[in-house]
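Example record used in the benchmark description.
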Amino acid sequence: MTWRELLNEGKTSLKAAGISDHDTDAFLLLSYVSGYDRGRYMLHEREHVPDDRADAFRVCIEKRESHIPLQHITGVQNFYGYDFLVTPDVLIPRQETEELAELAISFALNISGVCNILDLCTGSGCIAVTVKKELDKRHICSYAAASDISDKALFIAGKNAEKNKARITFIKSDMFENIDGRFDIIISNPPYIPTDDIYGLDPEVKDCDPWEALDGGQDGLLYYRIIAEEAKAHLNDHGLILLEIGYDQGSRVAEIFSNKGFPDISIRKDISGNDRFAVIKMP
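Model output (structure tokens):
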């Protein structure tokens, strides 16, 4: 069997299993077992596939057919141009969250002196690592801390910081419980899905992502209330809070922060036109 024939076999199997991105996922799994990028695949597609590589590919296809996320099979997800280790212990980094990191980077560029950044609910560490790396590239002096309640998530986040050579201080903390000091920017992509809604999510999310990274309480707003209540004690003058939110939560999140004395709140849309980010400025 050639590489092309094996790839077509994988595409057909994934399509029959109802995988929406069957063509893309089949190629990514072929690339994973072969080490070929698109260009090298084109050079070798008519060559015979070694039996062990064909077997490895079919094992991966079987996993994907059962709706195990692609990233849990390959163990990696690219985010903002950096590769991050991914396991079932952390939320798989999403493309829209890259825009949250971009917001943090753009605001940090306007801060004089050392920019102190805190990433709450860090998960894989993708936001903290990305922001730190990008500021380092621009020679912006910064200190980055990242917290999570999960030991397993912090372990993965630490591995990702090490892998990407980013200097991050990791803190085990239930929100602000163990956080000391003040920051110029507090970033968070907290759990924001209402508890009962999780049961209706795609199986690749509700069955594979960690529940604690999804569950935002009965109305999905639990962690925004905690941040609004406690963030002032950890923000420098003119500091910023940058949050990812659900597409239908903008007005309610704005109200929560307004009621806690934050007068400058803006809700921003993601690239798809949905409300996705809250930018809250300290008075």
